[in-house]
Amino acid sequence: MPSIKLVTEIPGPVSRAFHARRQAAVPRGIYQATSLFVRSAHGAVVEDMDGNQLLDFAGGIGTLNVGHTDAGVVEAVQRQAADLTHMCFSVAGYEGYVTLAERLARLTPGTFAKKTMFVNSGAEAVENAVKIARHATKRPGVLCFEDAFHGRTQLALSLTSKVAYKAGFGPMDGNVTRVPFANPYRSAAGPSGCTRATIAGIEDHFRRHADPAQIAAVIVEPVLGEGGFIVPPPDFLRSLQELCDGYGILFIADEVQTGFGRTGRLFACEHFGVTPDIVVTAKSLGGGLPLAAIVGRAELMDSPAISGLGGTYSGNPVAIAAAHAVIDRFAKGELLARAEAIGARIEARMREWERSSPLVGDVRRLGAMVAIELVKDRATKTPAKEETTEIVRLAAERGVILMPAGTYSNVIRILVPLVVTDAELDEGLAVLGEAIEMQNAKFKMQMMS
Ligand code: PLP
Fold it and tell me: Which pLDDT does position 445 carry in this prediction?
């Protein structure tokens, strides 16, 4: 039985009507990958307002690792909502906040004493991690990377790389300094020389542009998310941490997109053998509810004085209950292994497309964080942005929801819920393969004319 069931064209008349109303009532600045309006979603299947069923390979941009409306999450939310929807942790405490802090301290890398605070979004968590690092080190600077994405609030935006997200929103934070990320596909030094060249570049940056003695922290996504699922060489993060340790620079891992099981480990840092001073996590932590956590060394987290940290809704009891249910789901064991199996199955198909389609420049993954980068020419690696946009549109028309990524918008990333079945996965990949083949044929025609 196929999961994709289309009863109208995509987008259908109801979606189109709401999209028109959206254009009038909601700012255009909020990007939308499709014009779909949805009614419900379970597991990896979404039903839109026209009654079409589509496969969701975007997973709320990495928020739904346990799937849409996971039974445990829904039950925990309903139970909690009946008892206490809000208190404000700055007014009085509640059990779930403290027990979730205790659980995250155990689950994040590092056996040292840790403390945890909760906020509502990835960007807010990034902001708080930097505030804490600045306070603890008494240094103003922050080191970040090209192609990084850390959010859209003002400091997080300063740390975010892509100019399209930042244009017109200045001034940016003047103490942020940026260096290239170790990108095996695009580094001039190639995959094997990429770590050494990138680390040497940072050392040079410290001589030419930024005094390392003034830098509080480096913030890094273990695998670049929005930047195009760029998986660094295995030794890069360790080398980076060693370099930073030498200058007393704290290591903040932004695991907002890589976290909570996506890569086959709870945190992607675990693949690379690094122990961050502070871990920022959000998205799939809340299983669809807005929740983010900052987990760090206890002495750093305790640096800000009383009332230096907080927020009215931070660590809302309903979102906290959802996160407990998410952790319970992972504790059952099979989802992390499933992430690796899903990633391997997707990669196998992508390698076939790589062989048959010159448009596919690179296939890369860590666990179920999988992407293809599309190029007009494999030698020059000229980004194929228009073709990527068209593939995403063609796939949606045929019932698969996808999100593009990358500084050049030429990457198709897959963030399918980890509860997807093999049959659903194969069905969705067949649609994506068809969309790629259609673009490939068009591309070949253009090349010949
Ligand atoms: N950090 C990373 C790595 C992200 O991928 C994102 C969002 O995509 C953020 C931070 C910002 O999270 P939020 O959108 O919840 O503010």
Answer: 79
Amino acid at 16: R
pLDDT at residue number 447? 75
Helix/strand/coil (H/E/C) assignment for every residue in the chain: CCCCECCCCCCCHHHHHHHHHHHHHCCCCCCCCCCCCEEEEEECEEEECCCCEEEECCHHHHCCCCCECCHHHHHHHHHHHHHCCCCCCCCCCCHHHHHHHHHHHHHCCCCCCEEEEEECCHHHHHHHHHHHHHHHHCCCEEEEECCCCCCCCHHHHHHCCCHHHHCCCCCCCCCEEEECCCCCCCCCCHHHHHHHHHHHHHHHHHHHCCCHHHEEEEEECCCECCCCCECCCCCHHHHHHHHHHHCCCEEEEECCCCCCCCCCCCCCHHHHCCCCCEEEECHHHHCCCCCEEEEEEHHHHCCCCCCCCCCCCCCCHHHHHHHHHHHHHHHCCHHHHHHHHHHHHHHHHHHHHHHHCCCEEEEEEECCEEEEEEEEECCCCEECHHHHHHHHHHHHHCCEECEEECCCCCEEEECCCCCCCHHHHHHHHHHHHHHHHHHHHHHHHHHHC
Cβ 257 under 6 angstroms from ligand 1: yes
Domain at 88-331, CATH from 3.90.1300.10, 3.40.50.170, 3.40.640.10, 3.60.130.10: 3.40.640.10
Q: In whole angstroms, what is the distance from residue 401 CA to residue 59 CA?
A: 9
Best mutation site among 130, 150, 415 for ligand 1 pocket (most ligand atoms within 8 Å of CB):
150
62 has a pLDDT exceeding 80: yes
Domain boundaries, the chain: 88-331
Average confidence (pLDDT) over 318-322: 98
Nearest atom within ligand 1 for CA of residue 224: 3
Residue from 118, 120, 130, 149 whose mutation best tests the ligand 1 pocket (most atoms within 8 A of CB): 149
Rounded mean pLDDT, 270-293: 98
Bridge partners (DSSP) listed for residue 219? 252
pLDDT above 90 for 448: no
Residue 447 vs residue 77, higher pLDDT: 77
pLDDT (tens digit per residue) in 430-439: 999 999 999 9
